[in-house]
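Hi support team,

I'm filing this because I wasn't sure whether my run with calcium ion finished correctly. The job status page said complete, but I'd like someone to confirm that the output block is well-formed before I use it downstream. Pasting the exact inputs I used:
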Amino acid sequence: MTKLNVVILAAGEGKRMRSSLPKVLHTLAGRSLLMHVTKTARLLSPEKICIVIGHGVEKVKQSIKGNDLTWVLQEQQLGTGHALMQTLPHLERDGLTLVLYGDVPLIRIHTLQKLIAKAEEKHCVLLTAVIENPLGYGRIVRDTETGAIKAIIEQKDTSAEQQEIHEINTGIMLIPNEYLHDWLPKIKNKNMQNEYYLTDIIALLVKQDIQVASSQAANLWEVMGINNKSQLAALERIYQRDCADKLLHQGVSLMDPSRIDIRGELICGSDVEIDIDCIFEGNVKLDDFVQIGAHCILKNVKVAADTTILPYSLIENTEIGENCKIGPYARIRPGTKLSNKVHIGNFVEVKNSQIASGSKANHLSYIGDSIVGKNVNIGAGTITCNYDGANKHQTIIEDDVFIGSDTQLIAPVTISKGSTIGAGSTITRETPEGQLTLSRSKQVSIAGWKRPQKPKV
Ligand code: UD1
Ligand code: CA
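And here is everything the job wrote out:
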Protein backbone atom coordinates (compact mmCIF):
# COMPACT_ATOMS: atom_id res chain seq x y z
CA MET A 1 0.00 0.00 0.00
CA THR A 2 1.24 3.46 -0.92
CA LYS A 3 1.61 5.83 2.00
CA LEU A 4 -1.25 8.31 2.26
CA ASN A 5 -0.91 11.86 3.56
CA VAL A 6 -3.73 14.33 3.98
CA VAL A 7 -3.38 18.09 3.60
CA ILE A 8 -6.26 20.24 4.80
CA LEU A 9 -6.25 23.80 3.48
CA ALA A 10 -7.57 26.12 6.16
CA ALA A 11 -5.59 29.34 5.93
CA GLY A 12 -8.35 31.55 4.54
CA GLU A 13 -9.92 34.28 6.63
CA GLY A 14 -13.46 33.85 5.44
CA LYS A 15 -14.31 37.55 5.13
CA ARG A 16 -17.79 36.80 3.85
CA MET A 17 -18.72 35.10 7.13
CA ARG A 18 -18.63 38.62 8.64
CA SER A 19 -17.40 37.28 11.95
CA SER A 20 -14.33 37.61 14.16
CA LEU A 21 -14.12 33.82 14.31
CA PRO A 22 -11.84 32.15 11.72
CA LYS A 23 -14.06 30.57 9.07
CA VAL A 24 -13.12 26.95 9.79
CA LEU A 25 -14.13 27.34 13.44
CA HIS A 26 -17.76 28.05 12.65
CA THR A 27 -19.89 25.10 13.63
CA LEU A 28 -22.11 22.75 11.71
CA ALA A 29 -24.09 20.21 13.71
CA GLY A 30 -22.26 21.29 16.85
CA ARG A 31 -18.75 20.69 15.52
CA SER A 32 -16.34 23.09 13.84
CA LEU A 33 -16.05 22.81 10.08
CA LEU A 34 -12.40 21.85 10.52
CA MET A 35 -13.32 19.17 13.06
CA HIS A 36 -15.66 17.54 10.54
CA VAL A 37 -12.93 17.33 7.91
CA THR A 38 -10.26 16.22 10.39
CA LYS A 39 -12.52 13.47 11.74
CA THR A 40 -13.08 12.17 8.23
CA ALA A 41 -9.36 12.42 7.42
CA ARG A 42 -8.53 10.42 10.54
CA LEU A 43 -10.85 7.62 9.43
CA LEU A 44 -8.48 7.07 6.49
CA SER A 45 -5.61 6.37 8.97
CA PRO A 46 -3.11 8.42 6.97
CA GLU A 47 0.64 8.65 7.71
CA LYS A 48 0.28 12.31 8.39
CA ILE A 49 -2.36 15.06 8.46
CA CYS A 50 -1.00 18.53 7.62
CA ILE A 51 -3.32 21.46 8.29
CA VAL A 52 -2.37 24.71 6.56
CA ILE A 53 -3.36 27.70 8.69
CA GLY A 54 -2.93 31.45 8.37
CA HIS A 55 -5.76 33.29 10.12
CA GLY A 56 -6.59 32.97 13.80
CA VAL A 57 -3.68 30.55 14.05
CA GLU A 58 -3.74 30.03 17.84
CA LYS A 59 -7.50 29.64 18.04
CA VAL A 60 -7.54 27.15 15.19
CA LYS A 61 -4.68 25.12 16.70
CA GLN A 62 -6.39 24.99 20.08
CA SER A 63 -9.63 23.80 18.56
CA ILE A 64 -8.31 20.31 17.75
CA LYS A 65 -5.87 18.27 19.78
CA GLY A 66 -3.76 15.34 18.65
CA ASN A 67 -0.13 14.62 17.88
CA ASP A 68 -1.18 13.12 14.56
CA LEU A 69 -1.66 16.69 13.29
CA THR A 70 1.09 18.76 11.68
CA TRP A 71 0.27 22.47 11.70
CA VAL A 72 1.77 24.33 8.76
CA LEU A 73 1.80 28.12 8.70
CA GLN A 74 1.06 29.99 5.48
CA GLU A 75 1.74 33.57 6.49
CA GLN A 76 0.35 35.14 3.33
CA GLN A 77 -2.45 33.56 1.39
CA LEU A 78 -1.02 33.59 -2.11
CA GLY A 79 -3.22 30.82 -3.50
CA THR A 80 -3.98 27.13 -3.09
CA GLY A 81 -0.76 26.12 -4.89
CA HIS A 82 1.26 28.32 -2.53
CA ALA A 83 -0.60 26.83 0.45
CA LEU A 84 0.34 23.31 -0.60
CA MET A 85 3.91 24.38 -1.25
CA GLN A 86 4.27 25.18 2.48
CA THR A 87 3.64 21.51 3.28
CA LEU A 88 6.41 20.17 1.01
CA PRO A 89 9.04 20.01 3.80
CA HIS A 90 6.65 17.69 5.66
CA LEU A 91 5.88 15.38 2.73
CA GLU A 92 8.28 12.64 1.72
CA ARG A 93 8.92 12.00 -1.96
CA ASP A 94 7.10 8.69 -1.96
CA GLY A 95 3.45 8.34 -1.09
CA LEU A 96 0.27 10.12 -2.10
CA THR A 97 -1.33 13.30 -0.82
CA LEU A 98 -5.05 13.86 -0.54
CA VAL A 99 -6.00 17.54 -0.55
CA LEU A 100 -9.06 18.46 1.52
CA TYR A 101 -10.54 21.82 2.51
CA GLY A 102 -11.32 23.17 5.94
CA ASP A 103 -14.46 24.81 4.58
CA VAL A 104 -15.84 21.74 2.77
CA PRO A 105 -17.00 19.94 5.90
CA LEU A 106 -19.26 17.13 4.79
CA ILE A 107 -17.05 15.12 2.47
CA ARG A 108 -17.70 11.43 3.18
CA ILE A 109 -15.21 8.69 3.88
CA HIS A 110 -16.86 6.49 1.24
CA THR A 111 -16.29 9.11 -1.48
CA LEU A 112 -12.65 9.50 -0.47
CA GLN A 113 -12.08 5.74 -0.43
CA LYS A 114 -13.50 5.54 -3.94
CA LEU A 115 -11.16 8.34 -5.05
CA ILE A 116 -8.16 6.61 -3.47
CA ALA A 117 -9.10 3.30 -5.08
CA LYS A 118 -8.89 5.04 -8.49
CA ALA A 119 -5.34 6.17 -7.92
CA GLU A 120 -3.48 3.40 -9.66
CA GLU A 121 0.27 3.79 -9.67
CA LYS A 122 1.29 7.41 -10.27
CA HIS A 123 -2.13 8.63 -11.25
CA CYS A 124 -3.56 11.85 -10.10
CA VAL A 125 -7.31 11.81 -9.34
CA LEU A 126 -9.62 14.81 -9.19
CA LEU A 127 -12.96 14.83 -7.45
CA THR A 128 -15.24 16.55 -9.95
CA ALA A 129 -18.95 17.28 -10.02
CA VAL A 130 -21.44 18.14 -12.71
CA ILE A 131 -23.61 21.01 -11.54
CA GLU A 132 -26.38 23.11 -12.99
CA ASN A 133 -24.81 26.47 -12.16
CA PRO A 134 -21.00 26.22 -12.42
CA LEU A 135 -20.43 29.97 -11.94
CA GLY A 136 -17.43 30.65 -9.71
CA TYR A 137 -15.87 27.22 -9.93
CA GLY A 138 -12.79 26.00 -11.78
CA ARG A 139 -13.88 24.11 -14.94
CA ILE A 140 -12.62 20.71 -16.00
CA VAL A 141 -11.38 20.97 -19.58
CA ARG A 142 -11.33 17.62 -21.39
CA ASP A 143 -10.02 16.49 -24.76
CA THR A 144 -13.00 16.60 -27.12
CA GLU A 145 -12.04 13.25 -28.71
CA THR A 146 -10.62 11.11 -25.92
CA GLY A 147 -12.40 12.77 -23.00
CA ALA A 148 -9.09 12.87 -21.10
CA ILE A 149 -8.66 15.72 -18.61
CA LYS A 150 -6.41 18.45 -20.01
CA ALA A 151 -6.57 21.29 -17.49
CA ILE A 152 -8.56 23.12 -14.83
CA ILE A 153 -9.42 26.71 -15.70
CA GLU A 154 -10.46 29.07 -12.92
CA GLN A 155 -13.71 31.02 -13.43
CA LYS A 156 -11.94 34.35 -13.79
CA ASP A 157 -9.64 32.94 -16.46
CA THR A 158 -12.26 31.09 -18.53
CA SER A 159 -13.12 31.81 -22.14
CA ALA A 160 -16.79 32.23 -23.13
CA GLU A 161 -16.73 28.67 -24.45
CA GLN A 162 -15.23 27.27 -21.24
CA GLN A 163 -17.92 29.02 -19.21
CA GLU A 164 -20.40 26.58 -20.75
CA ILE A 165 -18.64 23.62 -19.09
CA HIS A 166 -20.73 22.18 -16.26
CA GLU A 167 -18.13 19.78 -14.89
CA ILE A 168 -16.36 21.60 -12.07
CA ASN A 169 -13.35 21.07 -9.85
CA THR A 170 -14.42 20.42 -6.27
CA GLY A 171 -10.83 21.17 -5.22
CA ILE A 172 -10.39 17.76 -3.60
CA MET A 173 -7.65 15.79 -5.30
CA LEU A 174 -5.23 12.94 -4.80
CA ILE A 175 -1.75 13.46 -6.14
CA PRO A 176 1.54 11.57 -5.82
CA ASN A 177 4.01 13.45 -3.61
CA GLU A 178 6.78 13.33 -6.21
CA TYR A 179 4.65 15.40 -8.59
CA LEU A 180 4.04 17.97 -5.88
CA HIS A 181 7.77 18.17 -5.18
CA ASP A 182 8.66 18.43 -8.89
CA TRP A 183 5.89 20.64 -10.25
CA LEU A 184 4.51 22.89 -7.49
CA PRO A 185 7.63 25.11 -7.50
CA LYS A 186 7.10 25.65 -11.24
CA ILE A 187 3.59 27.10 -10.94
CA LYS A 188 3.34 30.79 -11.89
CA ASN A 189 0.89 33.42 -10.66
CA LYS A 190 0.25 35.01 -14.05
CA ASN A 191 -3.55 34.93 -13.90
CA MET A 192 -6.45 37.24 -13.17
CA GLN A 193 -6.07 36.87 -9.38
CA ASN A 194 -2.25 36.83 -9.29
CA GLU A 195 -2.46 33.67 -7.22
CA TYR A 196 -0.49 30.46 -7.32
CA TYR A 197 -3.23 28.04 -8.35
CA LEU A 198 -2.87 24.42 -7.26
CA THR A 199 -5.11 23.62 -10.21
CA ASP A 200 -2.37 24.70 -12.64
CA ILE A 201 -0.43 21.57 -11.75
CA ILE A 202 -2.91 19.55 -13.81
CA ALA A 203 -1.93 21.08 -17.17
CA LEU A 204 1.74 20.65 -16.23
CA LEU A 205 1.22 16.95 -15.52
CA VAL A 206 -0.77 16.41 -18.71
CA LYS A 207 2.15 17.91 -20.66
CA GLN A 208 4.33 15.15 -19.17
CA ASP A 209 1.86 12.53 -20.42
CA ILE A 210 0.76 11.81 -16.88
CA GLN A 211 -2.84 10.67 -16.80
CA VAL A 212 -5.32 12.50 -14.64
CA ALA A 213 -8.39 10.51 -13.60
CA SER A 214 -11.62 11.78 -12.08
CA SER A 215 -14.10 10.51 -9.54
CA GLN A 216 -17.46 11.78 -8.25
CA ALA A 217 -19.05 12.11 -4.83
CA ALA A 218 -22.21 10.15 -4.03
CA ASN A 219 -24.02 13.36 -2.98
CA LEU A 220 -23.51 16.88 -4.26
CA TRP A 221 -23.68 18.34 -0.76
CA GLU A 222 -20.51 16.47 0.19
CA VAL A 223 -18.48 18.87 -1.94
CA MET A 224 -20.31 22.05 -1.02
CA GLY A 225 -18.04 24.72 0.47
CA ILE A 226 -18.97 27.36 3.02
CA ASN A 227 -18.31 31.00 2.23
CA ASN A 228 -21.08 32.75 4.14
CA LYS A 229 -23.64 32.22 6.89
CA SER A 230 -26.38 31.51 4.41
CA GLN A 231 -24.45 28.58 2.89
CA LEU A 232 -23.61 27.38 6.39
CA ALA A 233 -27.27 27.41 7.39
CA ALA A 234 -28.29 25.63 4.19
CA LEU A 235 -25.68 22.90 4.65
CA GLU A 236 -26.73 22.47 8.29
CA ARG A 237 -30.29 21.70 7.16
CA ILE A 238 -29.06 19.31 4.46
CA TYR A 239 -26.94 17.50 7.03
CA GLN A 240 -29.77 17.31 9.56
CA ARG A 241 -32.19 16.01 6.96
CA ASP A 242 -29.69 13.32 6.03
CA CYS A 243 -29.36 12.29 9.71
CA ALA A 244 -33.16 12.22 10.02
CA ASP A 245 -33.53 10.08 6.90
CA LYS A 246 -31.01 7.59 8.28
CA LEU A 247 -32.99 7.34 11.54
CA LEU A 248 -36.25 6.84 9.65
CA HIS A 249 -34.56 4.15 7.58
CA GLN A 250 -33.54 2.40 10.82
CA GLY A 251 -37.17 2.42 11.93
CA VAL A 252 -37.14 5.37 14.31
CA SER A 253 -40.42 7.34 14.27
CA LEU A 254 -39.87 11.06 13.81
CA MET A 255 -42.98 13.24 14.03
CA ASP A 256 -41.31 15.66 11.61
CA PRO A 257 -37.95 14.75 10.05
CA SER A 258 -37.36 18.42 9.25
CA ARG A 259 -37.59 19.34 12.91
CA ILE A 260 -34.81 17.42 14.66
CA ASP A 261 -31.21 18.44 15.33
CA ILE A 262 -28.41 15.99 15.96
CA ARG A 263 -25.17 17.57 17.09
CA GLY A 264 -23.11 14.47 17.66
CA GLU A 265 -24.14 10.80 17.64
CA LEU A 266 -27.65 9.50 18.25
CA ILE A 267 -28.04 5.74 18.54
CA CYS A 268 -31.58 4.36 18.73
CA GLY A 269 -33.00 0.92 19.50
CA SER A 270 -36.20 -0.35 17.94
CA ASP A 271 -39.57 1.42 18.12
CA VAL A 272 -38.15 4.70 19.38
CA GLU A 273 -40.41 7.73 18.92
CA ILE A 274 -39.20 11.31 18.79
CA ASP A 275 -41.57 14.26 18.69
CA ILE A 276 -40.77 17.62 17.08
CA ASP A 277 -37.97 20.09 17.81
CA CYS A 278 -35.69 17.89 19.90
CA ILE A 279 -31.93 18.51 20.05
CA PHE A 280 -29.46 15.67 20.68
CA GLU A 281 -25.91 16.65 21.54
CA GLY A 282 -22.75 14.64 22.13
CA ASN A 283 -23.43 10.93 22.50
CA VAL A 284 -27.03 9.99 23.09
CA LYS A 285 -28.34 6.44 23.22
CA LEU A 286 -32.05 5.63 23.32
CA ASP A 287 -32.97 2.00 23.90
CA ASP A 288 -36.04 0.15 22.60
CA PHE A 289 -39.45 1.82 22.97
CA VAL A 290 -38.09 5.07 24.37
CA GLN A 291 -40.34 8.06 23.69
CA ILE A 292 -39.06 11.60 23.59
CA GLY A 293 -41.63 14.39 23.80
CA ALA A 294 -41.50 17.66 21.89
CA HIS A 295 -38.82 20.29 22.57
CA CYS A 296 -36.47 18.14 24.64
CA ILE A 297 -32.70 18.66 24.74
CA LEU A 298 -30.52 15.66 25.58
CA LYS A 299 -26.75 15.95 25.82
CA ASN A 300 -24.60 12.88 26.53
CA VAL A 301 -27.49 10.85 27.86
CA LYS A 302 -28.25 7.13 27.96
CA VAL A 303 -31.90 6.20 28.23
CA ALA A 304 -32.85 2.56 28.88
CA ALA A 305 -35.84 0.78 27.36
CA ASP A 306 -39.47 1.83 27.79
CA THR A 307 -38.69 5.19 29.35
CA THR A 308 -40.75 8.21 28.42
CA ILE A 309 -39.38 11.72 28.44
CA LEU A 310 -42.15 14.28 28.32
CA PRO A 311 -41.94 17.66 26.56
CA TYR A 312 -39.57 20.51 27.39
CA SER A 313 -37.09 18.48 29.41
CA LEU A 314 -33.38 19.34 29.48
CA ILE A 315 -31.07 16.46 30.39
CA GLU A 316 -27.29 16.46 30.45
CA ASN A 317 -24.62 13.83 31.25
CA THR A 318 -27.12 11.48 32.79
CA GLU A 319 -27.99 7.79 32.78
CA ILE A 320 -31.66 6.90 32.95
CA GLY A 321 -32.95 3.39 33.68
CA GLU A 322 -35.86 1.44 32.23
CA ASN A 323 -39.49 2.45 32.53
CA CYS A 324 -38.82 5.88 33.93
CA LYS A 325 -41.07 8.87 33.44
CA ILE A 326 -39.30 12.19 33.13
CA GLY A 327 -40.85 15.64 32.69
CA PRO A 328 -42.58 17.60 31.38
CA TYR A 329 -40.24 20.48 32.19
CA ALA A 330 -37.64 18.39 34.03
CA ARG A 331 -34.06 19.54 34.32
CA ILE A 332 -31.49 16.83 34.96
CA ARG A 333 -27.93 18.02 35.30
CA PRO A 334 -24.55 16.26 34.98
CA GLY A 335 -23.57 13.35 37.18
CA THR A 336 -27.06 11.95 37.64
CA LYS A 337 -28.00 8.30 37.54
CA LEU A 338 -31.60 7.20 37.72
CA SER A 339 -32.47 3.51 38.20
CA ASN A 340 -35.59 1.85 36.82
CA LYS A 341 -39.14 3.16 37.30
CA VAL A 342 -38.02 6.53 38.60
CA HIS A 343 -40.38 9.48 38.11
CA ILE A 344 -39.02 13.01 37.82
CA GLY A 345 -41.86 15.43 37.24
CA ASN A 346 -42.40 19.04 36.27
CA PHE A 347 -40.06 21.74 37.48
CA VAL A 348 -37.85 19.23 39.27
CA GLU A 349 -34.10 19.82 39.05
CA VAL A 350 -31.74 16.94 39.79
CA LYS A 351 -27.99 17.40 39.92
CA ASN A 352 -25.16 14.94 40.58
CA SER A 353 -27.48 12.50 42.32
CA GLN A 354 -28.31 8.82 42.29
CA ILE A 355 -31.91 7.79 42.60
CA ALA A 356 -32.75 4.11 43.11
CA SER A 357 -35.66 2.25 41.56
CA GLY A 358 -39.27 3.18 42.13
CA SER A 359 -38.54 6.58 43.66
CA LYS A 360 -40.49 9.68 42.71
CA ALA A 361 -40.08 13.44 42.80
CA ASN A 362 -43.06 14.64 40.88
CA HIS A 363 -43.25 18.39 41.45
CA LEU A 364 -41.15 21.50 42.01
CA SER A 365 -38.05 20.15 43.77
CA TYR A 366 -34.27 20.48 43.86
CA ILE A 367 -32.28 17.32 44.47
CA GLY A 368 -28.56 18.03 44.44
CA ASP A 369 -25.55 15.92 45.51
CA SER A 370 -27.91 13.28 46.87
CA ILE A 371 -28.15 9.54 47.18
CA VAL A 372 -31.77 8.49 47.17
CA GLY A 373 -32.83 4.92 47.97
CA LYS A 374 -35.66 2.77 46.60
CA ASN A 375 -39.36 3.63 46.70
CA VAL A 376 -38.82 7.08 48.11
CA ASN A 377 -41.51 9.72 47.67
CA ILE A 378 -40.24 13.27 47.59
CA GLY A 379 -43.09 15.74 48.07
CA ALA A 380 -43.64 18.93 46.08
CA GLY A 381 -41.30 21.77 46.89
CA THR A 382 -38.67 19.69 48.66
CA ILE A 383 -35.22 21.25 48.50
CA THR A 384 -31.87 19.72 49.35
CA CYS A 385 -29.87 22.67 50.73
CA ASN A 386 -26.54 21.33 49.50
CA TYR A 387 -24.50 24.54 49.40
CA ASP A 388 -23.29 26.60 52.35
CA GLY A 389 -21.82 29.33 50.22
CA ALA A 390 -18.42 27.66 49.99
CA ASN A 391 -18.86 23.88 49.97
CA LYS A 392 -21.28 21.31 48.59
CA HIS A 393 -22.66 18.71 51.00
CA GLN A 394 -24.38 15.38 50.50
CA THR A 395 -27.92 14.37 51.37
CA ILE A 396 -28.68 10.68 51.90
CA ILE A 397 -32.29 9.56 51.70
CA GLU A 398 -32.64 5.85 52.45
CA ASP A 399 -35.21 3.34 51.12
CA ASP A 400 -38.94 3.82 51.68
CA VAL A 401 -38.69 7.38 52.94
CA PHE A 402 -41.67 9.74 52.55
CA ILE A 403 -40.83 13.42 52.52
CA GLY A 404 -43.74 15.82 53.01
CA SER A 405 -44.10 18.86 50.78
CA ASP A 406 -42.07 22.02 51.19
CA THR A 407 -39.30 20.42 53.21
CA GLN A 408 -35.73 21.66 53.40
CA LEU A 409 -33.04 19.05 53.96
CA ILE A 410 -29.95 20.90 55.24
CA ALA A 411 -26.97 18.88 54.02
CA PRO A 412 -24.99 17.02 55.16
CA VAL A 413 -27.93 15.03 56.46
CA THR A 414 -29.28 11.49 56.39
CA ILE A 415 -32.95 10.59 56.29
CA SER A 416 -32.97 7.03 57.59
CA LYS A 417 -34.87 4.09 56.15
CA GLY A 418 -38.62 4.29 56.37
CA SER A 419 -38.65 7.81 57.86
CA THR A 420 -41.57 10.12 57.25
CA ILE A 421 -40.94 13.86 57.25
CA GLY A 422 -43.89 16.12 58.01
CA ALA A 423 -44.66 18.79 55.43
CA GLY A 424 -43.00 22.16 55.87
CA SER A 425 -40.08 20.84 57.91
CA THR A 426 -36.49 22.01 58.03
CA ILE A 427 -34.37 18.95 58.74
CA THR A 428 -30.84 19.46 60.01
CA ARG A 429 -30.03 16.18 61.78
CA GLU A 430 -30.21 12.49 60.95
CA THR A 431 -33.73 11.13 61.42
CA PRO A 432 -34.46 7.83 63.22
CA GLU A 433 -35.62 4.88 61.10
CA GLY A 434 -39.32 4.35 60.60
CA GLN A 435 -40.47 7.39 62.61
CA LEU A 436 -42.28 10.61 61.79
CA THR A 437 -39.99 13.61 62.12
CA LEU A 438 -41.19 17.16 61.76
CA SER A 439 -39.92 20.59 62.66
CA ARG A 440 -42.80 22.96 62.49
CA SER A 441 -43.66 25.90 64.71
CA LYS A 442 -47.10 25.82 66.31
CA GLN A 443 -49.89 27.48 64.41
CA VAL A 444 -51.10 30.60 66.20
CA SER A 445 -53.85 33.14 65.47
CA ILE A 446 -53.69 36.71 66.75
CA ALA A 447 -57.05 38.17 67.52
CA GLY A 448 -57.63 41.82 66.59
CA TRP A 449 -54.58 42.03 64.32
CA LYS A 450 -55.03 44.46 61.43
CA ARG A 451 -53.25 44.63 58.14
CA PRO A 452 -51.31 47.88 57.66
CA GLN A 453 -53.20 50.37 55.45
CA LYS A 454 -51.80 52.67 52.78
CA PRO A 455 -52.30 56.33 53.85
CA LYS A 456 -55.27 57.94 52.02
CA VAL A 457 -54.44 60.98 49.91
C1 UD1 B 1 -10.80 26.59 -5.59
C2 UD1 B 1 -10.24 25.96 -6.85
C3 UD1 B 1 -11.37 25.84 -7.87
C4 UD1 B 1 -12.52 25.04 -7.31
C5 UD1 B 1 -12.99 25.66 -5.99
C6 UD1 B 1 -13.98 24.75 -5.33
C7 UD1 B 1 -7.93 26.72 -7.02
C8 UD1 B 1 -7.01 27.67 -7.64
N1 UD1 B 1 -9.20 26.81 -7.35
O1 UD1 B 1 -11.20 27.93 -5.94
O2 UD1 B 1 -10.88 25.19 -9.04
O3 UD1 B 1 -13.59 25.00 -8.23
O4 UD1 B 1 -11.87 25.82 -5.07
O5 UD1 B 1 -14.56 25.37 -4.21
O6 UD1 B 1 -7.49 25.90 -6.24
N2 UD1 B 1 -6.60 28.58 0.86
C9 UD1 B 1 -5.45 28.60 1.62
N3 UD1 B 1 -4.43 29.41 1.26
C10 UD1 B 1 -4.48 30.21 0.15
C11 UD1 B 1 -5.65 30.17 -0.62
C12 UD1 B 1 -6.68 29.34 -0.25
O7 UD1 B 1 -5.37 27.90 2.64
O8 UD1 B 1 -3.49 30.90 -0.10
C13 UD1 B 1 -7.71 27.73 1.26
C14 UD1 B 1 -8.93 28.56 1.61
O9 UD1 B 1 -8.96 28.83 2.99
C15 UD1 B 1 -10.07 27.67 1.17
C16 UD1 B 1 -9.47 26.83 0.05
O10 UD1 B 1 -8.08 26.92 0.16
O11 UD1 B 1 -10.45 26.80 2.21
C17 UD1 B 1 -9.95 27.25 -1.33
O12 UD1 B 1 -9.50 28.55 -1.60
P1 UD1 B 1 -10.36 29.59 -2.40
O13 UD1 B 1 -9.57 30.83 -2.52
O14 UD1 B 1 -11.71 29.67 -1.81
O15 UD1 B 1 -10.42 28.89 -3.82
P2 UD1 B 1 -11.55 29.09 -4.90
O16 UD1 B 1 -11.33 30.38 -5.59
O17 UD1 B 1 -12.87 28.84 -4.33
CA1 CA C 1 -13.84 28.88 -2.25
